[in-house]
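Technical annex, item 7. During the second reporting period the consortium partners agreed on a shared format for inverse folding records so that results from different sites could be compared directly. Each record opens with the tokenized structure and is followed by the designed sequence. A conforming record, contributed by the partner at site C, is shown below for reference.
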């Protein structure tokens, strides 16, 4: 379904039965709670039967209530404030099981990322990185950390890698103004999506550059610019965004690039090892770091 769930509900609201209007109004007003309710719980909350909730989902065009719930959860993540995120997480977890719960959720996100990411797009992304002239990497807010990680390792392999800093919009365009059809932009964005990243990818695309988008879903605002779309699950953990699966995907991308460009990478690191030894960059095991 391409239409925003709220837009779909508002469009059909005048035609709903009394029971369906109760569900619709509750979802519109309390989407942060409804997203994690079973059909039975939602029905009980608004005073109708579970079967009415299931019919409501089908009437909207979803293949059952779980599909509606999934759409609501995905949409919710881009709308919730930090305070709402904390409240939702507190309702889902107790203090005693946080460690086990969060780590198991991250394991599940990596598993789903492996299932959902296109291997064809992944291989295309590797080829695009290897063959381009200059690599621009854009990621703001929480995505800035993994953008910097990707930039650090690609900079060890390629001479022209530019990490675009999170600055004002005018400074952003000053940093990327020379991008052209020989170049590549890698955009990284997860809910809540950054307008700066969207603008940067739009500019790159209009200037003929190839675009790799690393994001969470086909409905992400940066997905439409992608020549290669890499999907990674990144659900919220309180006010914190879980970036375990995106980082794992980026690790795989770096490894694949290094394997495909093995001779060049080996030469680069042989030289780096000499430089590191000559200038005493690293501390040997057991050596005083002072």
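Designed sequence (site C submission):
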């Amino acid at each position: 379904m391409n239409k925003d769930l709220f837009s779909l509900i508002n469009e059909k609201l005048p035609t709903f039965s009394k029971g369906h209007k109760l569900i619709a109004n509750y979802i519109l007003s309390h989407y942060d709670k409804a997203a994690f309710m079973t059909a039975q719980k939602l029905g009980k909350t608004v005073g109708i039967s579970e079967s009415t909730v299931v019919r409501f989902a089908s009437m909207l065009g979803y293949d059952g209530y779980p599909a509606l719930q999934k759409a609501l959860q995905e949409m919710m993540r881009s709308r919730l404030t930090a305070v709402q995120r904390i409240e939702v997480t507190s309702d889902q977890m107790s203090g005693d099981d946080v460690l086990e719960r969060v780590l198991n959720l991250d394991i599940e996100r990596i598993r789903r990322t492996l299932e959902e990411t296109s291997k064809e797009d992944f291989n295309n992304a590797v080829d695009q990185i290897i063959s381009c002239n200059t690599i621009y990497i854009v990621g703001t807010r929480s995505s800035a950390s993994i953008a910097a990680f990707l930039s650090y390792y690609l900079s060890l392999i390629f001479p022209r890698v530019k990490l675009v800093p999170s600055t004002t919009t005018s400074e952003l365009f000053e940093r990327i103004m020379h991008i052209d059809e020989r170049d590549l932009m890698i955009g990284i964005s997860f809910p809540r999506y950054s307008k700066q990243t969207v603008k940067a990818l739009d500019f790159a695309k209009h200037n003929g550059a190839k675009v790799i988008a690393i994001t969470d879903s086909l409905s992400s605002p940066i997905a439409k610019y992608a020549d290669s779309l890499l999907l990674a699950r990144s659900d919220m953990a309180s006010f914190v965004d879980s970036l375990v699966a995106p980082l794992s995907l980026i690790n795989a991308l770096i490894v694949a690039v290094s394997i495909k460009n093995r001779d060049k990478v080996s030469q680069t690191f042989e030289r780096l090892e000499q430089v590191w030894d000559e200038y005493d960059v690293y501390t040997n095991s057991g050596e005083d770091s002072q």
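The chain has 14 helices and seven strands. The mean pLDDT is 85. All partners now use this format for quarterly exchanges.
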